[in-house]
Amino acid sequence: MEYKVLVVEDSRPFRRLLEAEIRKAGYIPCIANSIEQAETILNQETDFLCAILDYCLPDGQDGEIIDVCLSLDIKVIVLTAMMDARTRERVLAKTVIDYIPKDSPSCVSSIAPLLNRLEKNHQHHVLVVDDSLTARRYVRSLLERQYLNVLEAQNGQEALAMVRRDKRISLVITDYTMPEMDGVSVVKALRKLKTDGQLAIIGLSGEEDPSLTARFLKAGANDFLAKPFNQEEFYCRLHSTLNALDTERRLFNMANTDYLTQVWNRRYFFEHPHTRSHKGPRSLALVDVDHFKKINDQFGHHIGDITLIELAKMMKRYFPEDMVARFGGEEFCILYGNDEQSFVRRLEAMREELEKTVWSPYDKAFSITISIGMVHADARIDELVQRADRCLYQAKAGGRNQLIQDGQTDLVS
After folding, report:
1. How far apart (Å, rounded) are the C-alpha atoms in residues 232 and 249?
2. Boundaries of CATH 3.40.50.2300 in the chain?
3. In what order do the strands lie in the sheet with 149-153?
4. Class for domain 264-403, per CATH?
5. CA trace torsion 401, 406, 412, 413 (10° rounding)
């Protein structure tokens, strides 16, 4: 989706700089040089990621354009060359996202990172933990202004339950002084559930205790703010924390997912703690595309790539809560739980759907089949893979397009 950004700026050179920077960042600028022109645009559409507004315009020299956009529920970033203390207070009181001083042409370089941050914020769910309803609502208002999805908890126990239940939560902002559990205890408990790459944490406190910053950070928090905090500092620390989290997640995915199919790679599969330390019976299947070389030879490697991508999507559709990994080439592995019969039914349903599906990328119509080797046992992961591989070999040798389970004496189709 391409987001639009409204720009209202009366300086032609600065307007051109802004337009170029916004386009380079991948957004569509809608340009006006006055309130009158901006209102003409806004009469036609109001669906903007945000508006970047000059504080002083020919037909509104005291920030009037800010109120015009805020009245239409458009997020606002303010540009101004006259950021004295009075103007700064007035701008921040208007619930804007941020302001940028126009002290040099290079100031536009901060626009793209801010726009990218706002766009990415839609993906994040933030849990605010505080026993004070007033405090929660204030922090919530600051976060929602930045397109963040906000949840609330009134104590530590409730927060822990919500983090266990809702995997979407990527940031927790917790107060220190609360009944049942203080904020430092909440952070320690959260770190037993989630790593830095899975969950970011910011601590807050109004206590006059100089040791709290270190205590929060040593417990596993990513940052700490003393209350009452400055809105600008809050946003700076919030953006820094989310940027670091996004970077860590991106690096994790680059290292552990298969670039082509976006399922887990072989290394992640064997190194994952659940894979290595699980106790009790579980099911595992190796899946291989039959005659895959013929697809590459007949239609080209780009069609082969599309085939693997679509097959991976199908596997994730049939096994959304389970570990699906690409082992290499056209071979995939699925690690399932303890319900052997359910696993067999899903594998067979997937195989049968695939057999009946006609693939037609770039008007190249063809069908594919898969062979599956499956094992259900209480064994180490390497042994499960070896046993499933022997079953896969049997499935291939017995005519392909079939599922062979460990322990079968006859080949069945």
Report:
1. 26
2. 2-117, 122-253
3. 149-153, 125-129, 169-175, 200-205, 223-226
4. alpha beta
5. -20
Give the C-alpha separation, 65 to 51, whole Å. 10
**Residue that the structure tokens 């991976």 belong to:** 312
pLDDT in tens, 319-347: 999 999 999 999 999 999 889 999 999 99
- What's the pLDDT score for residue 173? 98
Please give the Cα distance from 147 to 344 (Å, whole number): 43
Q: pLDDT over 90 for what percent of the chain?
A: 82
Question: Can you list the alpha helix ranges (DSSP code H) found in 122-182?
Answer: 133-144, 156-165
Tell me the C-alpha to C-alpha distance, in Å, between residue 377 and each of 131, 284, 384, 405, 407.
48, 9, 7, 11, 11
Span 202-245, pLDDT tens digits:
999 999 898 999 999 999 999 999 999 988 899 999 999 999 99
| Interacting residues of 185 by C-beta distance below 8 A, sequence separation 6+ | 156
CA 96 to mean position of chain CA atoms: 25
What pTM does this model have? 0.82
**Three-class SS state of 335:** strand
Determine the topology of domain 2-117 in CATH. Rossmann fold (3.40.50)
Q: Report the top-level CATH class of 122-253.
A: alpha beta
- Is the distance from CB of 302 to CB of 401 less than 8 angstroms? no
